[in-house]
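This section describes the prediction task in plain terms. A model, or a person checking by hand, is given the sequence of a single protein chain and must write out its three-dimensional structure as a string of tokens. No templates, partner chains or ligands are provided. The sample shown here is typical of the held-out split.
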Amino acid sequence: MEIEDGSSVRDVLRAIKCSPLKAKLLLVSVNGERTDLSRTLNDGDVVGFFYLVSGG
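The expected answer:
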């Protein structure tokens, strides 16, 4: 997905229409490192979203 320069992880969540309630239940990583929603993204960053609880 393409986003504007200087966008944050929070902006990505808004773009994919993730509700604020669901956003509170996510762990976020950027380039494999855990981060928070205020992280500013750079060209080429890989963002991952994971629910706090998962199982198999």
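For orientation: Residues 9-51 form one domain.
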